[in-house]
Each structure stands twice: as C-alpha cells, then as structure tokens.
Specification:
- This protein has 2 helices and 39 strands.
- The chain is mostly beta strands and 572 residues long.
C-alpha cells in the first residue's frame, strides 16, 4: 500500500516537472510584441526580393533633380547596405512624391510615383517662377526595373488628375497588376449628383483602380467610380486611399477609407470591374488600412481602430493589428502594435500626426515588417511576429511603467510607489481638477468571452469612477465612453461596487467574466459573487479594452489604486 502511494506521488512529481518544463519552454518561445528596428533616412518603401532580401527605396533630392536610392538588407532590416542611386527623376515635369512598390513574379521592381505637374503641391515645385494652385495635380507615374533589376525603364505617366496617397499595389495569380487609388471629383454639395445622391453627400473623392496585363507596359482605368457617403458636407473626402488583397477564391478585396467610423469594401472578380462599396463591421477612424497575406494563408490587417476624436474622425493615437483565418470575415487580436510616441503631448497646431499609414511587408521568415507614423519624430519601422496577435492573455503590474496604457490629456493619473514592496508600483487615478478628466485605457487581445482580474483599492476621500469594457479605442478623456462601452461598472459613490461595500485601505480582487454571446458579465469580488452586468449593445469582435475614468464632479481627496490587471480569453 505504501509502495503504491509512493509510486503514485512519484508519477505526479515527474508529470509536474514535465508540465513545468513544457510551460517554461512555451513561455520562452512565446511570440514577442512588435520590435522597433533601425529607421532609415527619408521615407523608404520596402519590398522583399525573390531571394528573401529586403530592399528599401527612398526619394532624395540632388541639385535640381530627384533620385531614387536603393538599400538592401540580408538580415531583415537589422543592417543595410549603403544607398545606391538606381533611378534619376527629372523635375522638369514636376516634383515627385510617393512611391509605392511591387515586386512582380519575375522579380522585377515596379515603383509607382506621384508627380505634381509643377502645380506646387510638393514643396519646392515651381512653374514659371511661382506655384500654380488654380488646378491641383498629382498625377500617377510608373517606373520598372528590367534585366534582373540591373536596368530601369524611364518613368511614364499612367493617369492624370489629382490623387492622394497610394497605399497598395498587387499582382494577382493570373498576372494582372492592380493599383487602387482615389481621385478628386468635381462633386460639391451644390452639385451632389443624380438619383439617390441628391438626398445625401458622397464626399469630394471617388475610388477606382488601374490595371495592367503586360507587366506595366500599358494600363487601363476601371470604369467604376466607387463612392461612400460622408457625415458632413464640408471637408469630408468620401471614398479614399483604398488597399487591395487577392482572396483565395480569386476575387480582389478592396478596403476603402471613409469618415463613417468604419471601412467600406468592394469586390472584383478581375480587378477591373468593382461592386458598389458597402460598410464593413471593421471599426476605423478616417485612416487607411494595411493588408498582407501571411505564409500560412491567413490575413494580417493593420489599422487605427479609434473613435470619437476630432482629428481624422476618430484619431490616430494607436495602431492595431489583427489576423483573420476566414478571409476577412472575423478577426483575432485587435492589439495595439504601435502607439504615438508623442501622445503625451498636445497635438501640433498643423499637419498630420499619429500612427496612421501602415505599410506591411511579409518577410522570408514569416514575420511582418511595417512602417507607420506621421509627423516629426513619429514615423517608425517595426517587425511583428503575427503569432503575438493570437495570444490569449495579457497582464500588467506596472513594474515596466505605463507604456502599455493611454494616460494622456488627463490629470490625476500617475504611478506611485507601493508601500508594501519597495520596487512595486501602483497606478493612482484621482480627480484633481474639475476642468480635467482623470482616466486610463488599457488594451488586451479581443475575445467574445474572457476574464479580467483587477487588484485594486480605494483611498480615503475617493468619490466615484466608471470601469468600462469595450471593443474599440477612444481617448482617456472621452466623456461619452459610457454610452459606447459594452459593460459599465460604477465604483462609488460611498465606496459601493454593485452590491458590495468597499473598505478604505484594503486590497480587493475584482473578477469580471464576460460573454458577449450571452450579453452578460459576471462579477466576483474576492471570489464572492456580487451580481452581473447586462451588455449595452452588439459587438462584432468581442472585448479588447479596459477603461477607467473618474465620474466625480469635484476634485477627489483620494483616488482609486490599481495594483495589477490581467486579461485571459476563454473559449467561446
């Protein structure tokens, strides 16, 4: 009997060691978050060559002309060769911008440029001594390498008009090159259009595509004008800056930037004719997307899942990443992959800013290189392991600071030393000024069902705070968040949390178990049930944000103390 008991314990010990060993190995092999890599001078575009090397192309001014410089990396952007001029661009036709890049099936490089036709759009552009802004122009030009990228054909104009940023170009399995773009129409509120358009406004721009079946020698313009409604009649672009991706069934999928708080989409069987744009369930600010097909066939999406901010109809403070295993129908992750490095400062008085305009490229090892960011000191290049987006858990104890939180534009939100442990930190949220909001926002992997654990306490003089769970990003000072949160849990006044009374100076563990399929969230305080919350609205993605914001109308004498937070997704 004793022998069998000993043997049983021995087996348990061996299994425990094996499990611990596997857990340690899995932990050490866990995918890491986005890694910042050295940023090259200028605004290079990246392409992956057939042998796996990474090529970067930058526009540089030499004297009166502009040139394209090429650099190559054999170690996924850690080191680069010195710049070498591969193409000269005469400024007689105008100043050059862009470019966008395609590495075709033969391994040749296609560069798509913008040219202002001497209308002064790009700084330095001159026509007859002074810029001519009576008719803005940003034409589209095409240049291509030949002979194994050893020679280059001179650029040629393939479209004339006024376009915006070019964000995407692909070659389909059948060999057709598809270049989506948007262009300024002659539409105004006084001249809205005909039929149903007389009752609404479709913005200043339409989207469409150019395509080539002969490797870029000739180009054809799609006859379809893709339009999207707008929320106002002045300054709203409409359908702009589309990106495309070929689906497994051969269709080409176009995601279109809009001002409606979400992307619109259009589909094409051949890249030439396109369906009428329709709204998607993908929440987005007025910013373009980045799409790339991964090695295992899944789709990676990069975009700004931001709402309710005046700039860009929702903001560009953070950039998100997600993966789809079903050709864009549903998405996993929705994690912050880039945060504005200057988000703690007031935005600049003019010019673009934030984390928008992602340009993803699939590397030979399966990781994704992306460049994003606008404005001085904001543009950066990262390498992302896609598996990081699919991890089911995230936690923070503030030992590494507040970099993974948004706490800008508020007062009374700061890290303090925790008295119990010398090196431990605690996040304190207190209303210090009635003119300023006090709030903090934290992102974690999105899920329809999951568990959030929060270790917290309240100080003497704390008044009230709303704890919200939601499915998108908005600023820490968003006063309307409670109307858009999926679940709202008031804490206080009188230190009440649902049916429980909090004691000052004591730590509590609040557990929130949500299930958006059942539209409910169970509440546990130190393991004891204190009720549940009802979901306020439908969500297409599940929950990926924790929001904490003071609801006190007057300054607090004390605050809420946050010691640690962890989120774990559960199987639906």
């Amino acid at each position: 009997m004793e022998f069998r008991r000993f043997y049983f314990l021995f087996v348990l010990l061996v299994l425990g060691l094996a499990i611990s060993s596997d857990a340690a190995e899995n932990s050490s092999n866990a995918a890491q978050g986005p890694t910042l890599v050295a940023t090259l001078k200028g605004h290079p575009v990246f392409g992956v060559l057939p042998d796996g090397r990474l090529a970067a192309f930058s526009l540089t001014t030499l004297g009166k002309n502009q040139v394209v410089e090429m650099q190559v990396s054999t170690d996924n952007s850690r080191t680069w060769t010195n710049p070498a001029i591969v193409l000269s661009l005469s400024t007689d036709t105008g100043r050059w911008g862009g470019p966008e890049i395609l590495v075709d099936r033969e391994g040749e490089i296609h560069l798509i440029f913008l040219n202002d036709a001497n209308t002064g759009i790009y700084k330095g552009g001159e026509a007859s001594g002074r810029p001519n802004l009576t008719k803005k122009r940003l034409d589209i030009w095409h240049a291509k390498s030949t002979a194994g990228r050893t020679k280059w054909l001179s650029p040629k104009k393939i479209w004339e008009g006024y376009t915006g940023s070019l964000n995407s170009i692909i070659q389909t399995k059948k060999g057709r090159i598809v270049l989506p773009f948007s262009y300024k129409s002659d539409r105004t509120w006084r001249n809205r259009g005909e039929g149903p358009e007389t009752f609404t406004y479709m913005g200043d721009y339409d989207s469409t595509a150019l395509y080539s079946d002969d490797g870029g020698k000739t180009w054809t313009l799609s006859p379809d004008k893709l339009k999207v409604v707008t929320p106002d009649i002045r300054g709203a672009y409409g359908a702009v800056e589309p990106v495309v991706l070929e689906l497994k069934d051969g269709r080409v999928w176009m995601l279109i930037r809009s001002q409606m708080g979400r992307f619109y989409e259009s589909f094409s069987d051949d890249g030439a004719r396109w369906s009428k744009p329709a709204p998607t369930s993908i929440v987005s600010s007025d910013s373009p997307a980045g799409l790339v097909r991964l090695k295992d066939g899944r789709i990676l999406l990069l975009w700004n899942q931001c709402l309710r901010y005046p700039y860009a109809y929702g903001g560009r403070q953070v950039l998100h990443g997600a993966i789809s295993e079903d050709e864009g129908d549903t998405w996993r992750g929705i994690r912050e992959v880039m945060r504005d490095p200057q988000r703690d400062l007031p935005p600049p008085p003019g010019g673009d800013f934030g984390t928008a305009y992602p340009f993803p490229r699939l590397l030979k090892d399966g990781n994704v290189l992306f460049t994003s960011g606008q404005g001085g000191g904001r543009r950066a290049t990262y390498v992302l392991d896609p598996e990081w987006l699919t991890q089911p858990a995230q936690q923070t104890d503030f030992s590494d600071g507040l970099d993974d939180w948004s706490t800008y534009g508020v007062k009374g939100v700061e890290l303090k030393d925790a008295s119990q442990q010398p090196k431990a930190k605690v996040l304190r949220i207190a209303k210090l000024d009635s003119n300023w909001e006090a709030g903090a926002v934290w992102n974690f992997p999105a899920g329809r069902s999951g568990r959030l654990d929060i270790v917290f306490g309240v100080e003497p003089g704390f008044h009230s705070l709303n704890l919200g769970l939601t499915d998108h990003y908005s600023t820490p000072f968003d006063e309307e968040d409670r109307f858009y949160n999926l679940f709202n849990l008031p804490i206080g006044p009188n230190n009440l949390i649902n049916s429980a009374k909090l004691q000052v100076g004591r730590r509590y563990r609040l557990t929130m178990k949500w299930n958006t399929n059942n539209r409910a969230c169970e509440l546990l305080l130190d393991g004891k049930n204190i009720g549940s919350l009802s979901q306020t609205r439908v969500t297409p993605t599940g929950i990926n944000y924790l929001r904490l914001r003071s609801t006190s109308s007057q300054p607090d004498a004390g605050g809420l103390l946050l010691y640690e937070v962890s989120a774990n997704l559960l199987s639906d």
